[in-house]
Amino acid sequence: MNIGFIPIDNRPVCCTLAQDIAAIDSSINFYMPPREFLGDLTKPANYEAIFEWLKNLPSLNSIVVSLDTVAYGGLIPSRRSPESFEDIRTRILKFKEILQSKNAKIYAFSSIMRISNNNINEEEKEYWSRWGKRIFDYSYQTHKLGCESCITNVIPSEILDDYMNTRKRNFEINKIYLEWQKSGFFDTLVFSKDDCAEYGFNVQEARALEALGGFTKTGADEIPLTLLARAISEGKNIRIAPIFTEPDAKDLISNYEDVSIENSVKGQLELAGCTITTPDKADILLCINNFLNHQGEIVMKVPTEPFSHVWNTPEMPYMIADVRFANGADNAFVEQIFNRSADENFFGFSAWNTSANTLGSLICAAITKFTAQKYNNEAFQKLQTTRILDDWAYQANCRQKLENTDAIALKGLMKPYEEKCAKFLWKDFETSYKFPWNRLFEVEIEFN
User: Fold this and answer.
1) In whole angstroms, what is the distance from residue 52 CA to residue 124 CA?
2) Closest C-alpha to 399, from 417, 387, 413
3) Which pTM value belongs to this model?
4) Which of 75, 151, 161, 379 is the most exposed place for a label (fewest CB within 10 A)?
């Protein structure tokens, strides 16, 4: 199977994670643009280089594409790009011609521009450092009230005009994609809703796209992986049974999402092409360590009640989504998992960032292992080592002890966690660490 994959940007969870998952099945020929072609925190992707790369690929069965990369240069540039609607329209029409020449099934997603509820401009335009929270409030209140909020009087007109024009441009580009979908161009097209609140312009745009026949989905970074799972599972009936550690709390809503954790699970499984069933009929169990009362967040120092039951390892294929905390695993739960070593029934662990991020990436890896024509256990162990060390060791523990991006200091902190991980997976390894975007939010684990 030949699969092309154009990520959102060059972060490890968007770029190398997809490669590591595809490597589980050695029969998959996985093509992704060179990492230097992709965008990062400060620069957009090299569109022309990606176009040439795509032109020169061999015949593909399917291609998974993050449309923000080819339209704006990536997810973050989609909020910052000063280019006009016409410039972007010209670019995506050129991209469409190249895609048409590949005669492959196309699984695509495009973001609905988010509205972050803070004054942090690291991933936004410069003025967000002063006006971001006010713009969020303006968006929220205008939607909720059904008329323009008076908050507009305190935001400088040139800033509000720029923000609204950027939103309108992106929305009109999404409407073009929707027309392509109606003509049968895409096999699957998803409009993603990132960092959602109950009200806001992004919520209104999602409803407008749905009214026009579009499909919207809560999440962002994981959606290319969920679409990759759909491409891999095409024509197969993989039956998944969700099991919650806190079944009475599965109607609660995760941080940064607008649907219950139960519906988040269902949405990811359905988009991945899986059939949701009961444990007695399942090919794989999806074990979800969900939260009571509210989802915690370790980095933001938001506590929640940790796992307090007894973990019994299933006697059939299973994967584990630990979503009790956003952006980091539940230490109490992980310690119980480590009471037994992984066996052939272990199909993966994830606790990456939002609930949707965790679920989408986990399901993709499990599907790839389950359907593998040439299973590569070494690749699976590498992937699981990465997820355990990143999601548990780093995000839930070592990150809190760092004051800056000191990779040498991090290596020392990670050592005891590496030893536990190696024992669980029956796999020795040697690692090094770096911070690809020069911030603590993401770490990259390299195997020497």
Assistant:
1) 29
2) 413
3) 0.95
4) 161
3-state secondary structure of 429: coil
H or E, element range at 160: helix 157-182
d(CA 58, CA 55): 8
Residue 194 and residue 144: Cα distance in Å, rounded?
Answer: 19
What radius of gyration, in Å, describes the C-alpha atoms of the chain?
21
Residues pairing with 317 in the sheet: none
The one-character DSSP state at 43 is S
The SS3 assignment for 132 reads helix
Q: Distance (Å, rounded) from C-alpha 431 to C-alpha 445? A: 7
Length of the chain: 448
Strand spans (E) along 22-104: 29-31, 62-66
Beta bridge pairs of residue 192: 111, 217
The distance from CA 433 to its chain's CA centroid, rounded to whole angstroms, is 21
Question: Which residue matches tokens 């660490």?
Answer: 433
- Which token pair is 134? 């006010």
Of 176, 162, 15, the residue nearest 90 (C-alpha):
176
User: How many helices (DSSP H) and strands (DSSP E) are in the chain?
Assistant: 14, 15
Token pair recorded at residue 269? 């499984």
Return d(Cα 52, Cα 31) in angstroms, integer: 13
Could you tell me the domains of the chain? 2-227 (3.40.50), 235-447 (no CATH)
Dihedral pair phi/psi, residue 36, rounded to 5°:
-70, -15
The pLDDT profile of the chain, 448 residues, written as one tens digit per residue, is 999 999 999 999 999 999 999 999 999 999 999 999 999 999 999 999 999 999 999 999 999 999 999 999 999 999 999 999 999 999 999 999 999 999 999 999 999 999 988 999 999 999 999 999 999 999 999 999 888 777 778 899 999 999 999 999 999 999 999 999 999 999 999 999 876 678 899 999 999 999 999 999 988 999 999 999 999 999 899 999 999 999 999 999 999 888 899 999 999 999 999 999 999 999 999 999 999 999 999 988 999 999 999 999 999 999 999 999 999 999 999 999 999 999 999 999 999 999 999 999 999 999 999 999 999 999 999 999 999 999 999 999 999 999 999 999 999 999 999 999 999 999 999 999 999 999 999 999 999 8
Q: Please report the DSSP string for 344-387 in residue order.
A: TTEEEEE--SSHHHHHHHHHHHHHHHHH-SSB-HHHHHHHHHHH
Phi-psi region of 301 (alpha: psi -120 to 50; beta: other; left: phi over 0): left
